[in-house]
Hints:
mainly beta
Amino acid sequence: MIIGYGSRATTLMLLTGCLCTAMAPESARAQGGYLIFQAGYYVPTQDLGLLADAGFGQAVEFGERERSFAYSLGLELAVSGPISGRATLAYGTSADLAVKEGMCPECEARNNLLNATAAIVFRPLPGGVPVQPYLLGGGGVKHYDLQSLDELHRSPLHDQTRRTMLLGAGIEVRMGPLRVVTELSDYISPIFGDSDMETTQHDLFWTAGLMLGSG
């Protein structure tokens, strides 16, 4: 995975999350904790827009990005009753991104996406029910890693880090000690490109996987 230039904010977020987990009170950890491994798809919902300064001294217009595979790793700790807390890293793998720039009206760049978030998870049904729907909401940072336009452009594009809000819903199926989950998450952030209008960027992650732990 390539983080690239401009990733200091993301790295700091990850280190902070690790420290918070390590320093969590023993009583909270004893209530139950799970590691969550998921895989699926990353689906952008719109073009990334116009970026006035992309490292070439001129504007670059980003168009449609291809869908790609997605992976996520989460740590969830029980808090109280139906409420738990979750820290998640969600990664959208590299894919082609249409670019228009100066003398290159039909170029392509490579782009991947990393989200680092903390969220509250709410399960409305009693714990003994084997099929548990849940809602989650929180926030963190979103990091777009941009690689060079093509082999003719040796200068990399500027990576971009944005604050992000996380909203999602999922279903957890409990089969003895095994817990299977599938969820749809929307990472909502300020628009990637430069714009005078207040616009938001939506990045959808649909994933499924396993929760491993005890509770």
